Amino acid sequence: MSPFKLRLSCAAVTGALLAACGGGGDGATTAGDGPAQNNGNGQGAAVTSANGIVAGEVVVNLRDPASLQALLAEYGLSAIDQFGRRPIYRLSAAAGTDTEALAARLAADARVLYAEPNLLAETPEGRRRQLWAIGGDASTYATQWNTGALRLPEAHAINTGSNVTVAVLDSGVEASHPALAGRLAAGFDFVDFDAAPNEEGRAGDAGYGHGTHVASLVAQVAPAARIMPIRVLDAQGVGNIWVLAEGLLHAVDPDGVPGTDDGAKVINMSLGTTRPTRLLEDIIERVSCGDDYDDDDDDGDDDVVRCAAQGGAVVVSAAGNAGDTTRQYPAAEQHSGALAVAASAENGTLASFSTRGDWVQVAAPGELIYGAVPGGAYGVWNGTSMAAPMAAGAAALLRSRYPGWKPSDVTSKLMGNGRQLCGSPLKQIDAASALDGNSGPSLVCP
């Protein structure tokens, strides 16, 4: 059990950011990395922030965990949680503390590897209040335009994603939906801190239905894969980076025993923040067992053991819906085992709303996409959040066909074997070509 009680922190924020709730219960255990028992504290008092952070909270990675108590005393901080056995801590300051200034001071401390505010992250669609609309049915969903764009019939004749689990870090799922029933692996809810990662909220909430829609697109592209729902976003589609990091680690080590190969081989995150974050950069490198990963924090080598047993996960992230080159993180981290995914349109071009830039690596269909929504229904949505799970599904097909491949092998194949978009340097994923190496027909440009 973690030596620190974990309090839920909620933030009400202005502008595009709406609300945020962190994880609940105790944090990751010191003996392993599975979720611990809820300590029963429930939700803490609300705090206010106008700049995309959880007010009064910082994330700190220490060079030596023995320096923690002195650091807490010197800066007047209290420890909320520890990230497993790693010397990474979620700390809180007194009310009214300038969180940005505090993080800057900590980052300059010689005892600290990195420090930053506990940033808020959200869905690209929620940031712009782009909601789904009811429409279509099971047949529309199964036969929509993305099937031809990704060449799914040809791909499924080769592989359907068996023996692979895809973790979907999002707003939860409606587990009884026909598009998902029988396809789910056990997940976890890091917002309410329980084992039921269900959708919460109601129609009109910015995040409601997002996770169900996203998960159903993974299921469409990789129909034999198992989907592990991990709830890290509230009903408004907002969470914080500490909870995202918890969700990432749970995805690859759900039982908290690093040497067991029980984790996801692909992780989808249709969410992000426009600020770079050292925590997510660090944890994504760990969970993907990246080529540049260096376990330099003397944390008991849990990550080394896990990487040896499992080989790391492909991490897929939505590039964002800004329609410009604004970087969204973690998509813009550019790890070798990760993919930043833009959205394409049915006419073979980059969707007008999609974020683009030299840091974006590949595209997938994201305009007028039908997927599952709560109530056993189907809905249509636009966004890179829809494109990312299609890339994740294609990655699952590759991981099933080539189980010995590293995450970087998978991302290289998906980027290299796509079809060139019209008027864009990006390629659109071609699932069949990635599987068999044979080029499909070129896209017909308008």
Task: Provide a concise account of the structure shown.
With 446 residues, the protein is α/β, with parallel strands linked by helices.
The helix-and-strand class reads alpha/beta
The CATH level-2 architecture of the largest domain is identified as 3-Layer(aba) Sandwich
- Can you tell me the overall shape? globular
Spell out the CATH superfamily of the largest domain. Answer: Peptidase S8/S53 domain
Overall pLDDT score: 88
CATH class of the largest domain: Alpha Beta
Largest sheet: 7 strands, parallel
Q: DSSP helix count?
A: 13
Total tally of structural domains: 2
Arrangement of strands in the largest sheet? 10-11-9-13-14-15-16
Tell me the helix content. Answer: 25-40%
The whole-angstrom Rg is 20 Å
Strand content: 15-25%
Low-confidence blocks of residues: 1-32, 36-49
- Please tally the β strands and state the result: 20
Alpha-carbon distance between the termini?
Answer: 59 Å
- CATH fold label of the largest domain: Rossmann fold
What do these coordinates show?
The chain has 446 residues and is α/β, with parallel strands linked by helices. The chain folds into 2 domains: 8-120, no CATH class; 124-436, 3-Layer(aba) Sandwich (Rossmann fold). It has 13 helices and 20 strands. Strands 10-11-9-13-14-15-16 form a 7-stranded parallel β-sheet, with helices on both faces. Strands 5-6-4-7-12 form a 5-stranded antiparallel β-sheet. Helix 8 (241-252) packs parallel to helix 9 (278-287) and helix 11 (384-401) packs across helix 12 (407-416). The longest helix is centred in the last third of the chain and has 18 residues, at 384-401. The radius of gyration is 20 Å and the shape is globular. The N and C termini lie far apart (59 Å). 59% of the residues are buried. The model is unreliable at 1-32 and 36-49 (pLDDT under 50).
